[in-house]
Amino acid sequence: MKHVELQNITKRYGQFQAVTDLSLVIEKGEFCALLGPSGCGKSTLLRMIAGLEEVTEGKVVISGADVTDVPPAKRRIAMVFQSYALYPHMTVGQNIGFSLSVAHASKAEIEKRTAEVATMLQLDKLLDRRPAQLSGGQRQRVAIGRALVREPEVFLFDEPLSNLDALLRVQMRLELAKLHKELKSTMIYVTHDQVEAMTLATKIVVLDNGRISQVGTPLELYHSPANKFVASFIGSPAMNFFNSKIINVSAKSMDIQLGSTRQIKLNCSGTDLKNGDDIEIGIRPEHITIAESSKRVDISGAISIVEQLGNSTVLYVDSEIGQVIVECGGDTNLEIGSAIGLNFDIKKVHAFSTGGQVLPRHSV
Amino acid sequence: MNSRNASRWIGLIYVLPALIFVCAFVLYPFGQLVYTSLTSQSLLGGGAFVGLANYQRAFNDAAFWTALGFTARYTLFITPILMGLGLLLAFLVLPNRKIQKFARGVIFLPVVIGLGTSSFLWYWLFDEQVGLFNKVLVNLHVIVHPIVWFTSADLALWAVIISVTWKVVGFGMILFVAGMQSISSEVVEASLIDGTSYLQRTTRIFLPLILRTILLVTLISAIGSMLAFEQLYIMTAGGPRGKTLTTVYWIYQNSFINFKLGYGAALSVILTGIILCGTAVQLVLTNRRAHQ
User: Fold this and answer.
1) pLDDT, average across residues A128-152
2) Do B193 and A88 touch (CB under 8 A)?
3) What is the pLDDT of residue B241?
4) Which residue of B has its CA nearest to A102?
5) Which one of A142, B18, B226, B243 is most buried, by most CB atoms within 10 A?
6) CATH number of the domain encompassing residue A268
7) What residue ranges define each of the domains in chain B, with the CATH number in brackets?
8) d(CA B222, CA B81)
9) Complex prediction ipTM
10) CB of B187 within 8 Å of any CB in chain A?
11) Mind listing the pLDDT tens digit for each residue in A40-79?
12) Residue closest to A158 by CA, chosen among A115, A203, A130, A190
């Protein structure tokens, strides 16, 4: 069931176009992440859904009603801001109950609902404290509590974890996931952190320059990126990209040159491709393995950097096709400078046209 | 000498220039003022140590208490006007649109004019023969005949209040605008999402968050009003019949017209004490509210 619908949304600031003709449907109960680099228009989009930013063209529809010109308070939404945006002169309890207080709810009602939310978020012992007396994680929980108490139809989160340290971020991520599971509400979450988007969202919308680059589940985006932008944005360490040339192209496959000596066959093709065309291929670091023997080696090179992360080891290998990033087992023990042979998992290689669009794969 | 002591000495060296300045231009002159207040020193020279006689005399000086009463009345009238009008103007010119920025500049403009100059300007504007103020009021049929503003103590007080308000209201407005603009835009947006009306946003978000700026502007306005002199010297000359004589005006008359420097110094010390007490009470009260 459609819950939030953006119809041909455009946002202009003078001559600058922040969002261009964007359409998107978010289903009821979905956890939708708006993911993209700084300046891609994701926060602007969220603010337009919230009603904090005017829509230049297009419509915002929530629960079937056009809310494009409806003030924020009447959209049945709640928003959690990056800086928490707590009222510094009020206590935790007053912050949580503020929306009820301005709606002239009775004192008993405010106290009851504030206590319920505070218990749910383990803030019950902090109700009399001011925001300045709280840690970052506690402040974020108060901000979530302030959103929860309004019992909104849609929760909006604008990079809510980016001010927290790494450990607390993981903890709060789990709490948000639990909250979504419990409430089953529609949540729209803006982030530039692909790990947050991948771990929390049921649907990810990747934005680039005010346009949707791809919409899909986390694994769809990971395994089948629609273009080079999505392929490079999703995944850590990032995907390797190499320039190549088509040697022989057919309707369902093509042979490409990898380095000076090796040719590989990819099960993808494009209608307007011909022999000799330039293409770009991409492969994730975990889909490259260290060659066990010299019998079959796709590419060889010398290790320039070794990053031992415990659960995995990341190698940066200088080769004739450029730097290759390889992710291998945590117990891999290799020296900087040593020569190494690498094999590509051919089924996992993505090919991109010169315009950056992925070339469709074909089953063989 | 251990490192803690060394760092203390280094710290002292850093604050020494400021310390010398404060000693030379604040503490030493104030000390001299207190000493002079204990003498019968005249502007023409001479004078002996008289102990607390000047203070005793001030206590029995009806004119001094009348002047102090008028100054307090002037302060009590003008401070709320400056605060209220400053706040109202700040809310009106808060958005950063061109028209509001221009309005801010126009309202602030009189602040850079000297108080003496503006008092002369308003003295002529209030003139019953050629003053623009009377002409406008007559033309608008608000009054039938031109008012002689400076023959009545009450009218003279209001004429001074109008002129000083025009002159200084822009200063408070700018401080209030700065205070409001320092409030995080996300806090204001959060209150919008929480459903606040304009009035609720004003009373429950803006005003509590600029409480310290309100305190600062109140203190500046109140202290400035307690020290009022030029505007009354130029516009009313203390008249009619000394009814608009302020404390500083009375100190000036004693020190420089009647040549009684010692007595004038004693009155100055008393006024300083009163202002310090008032400021301390105001600080304690507002700080308590700010921490509530």
Assistant:
1) 93
2) no
3) 85
4) B196
5) A142
6) 2.40.50.140
7) 78-244 (1.10.3720.10)
8) 11
9) 0.85
10) yes
11) 999 999 999 999 999 999 999 999 999 999 999 999 999 9
12) A190
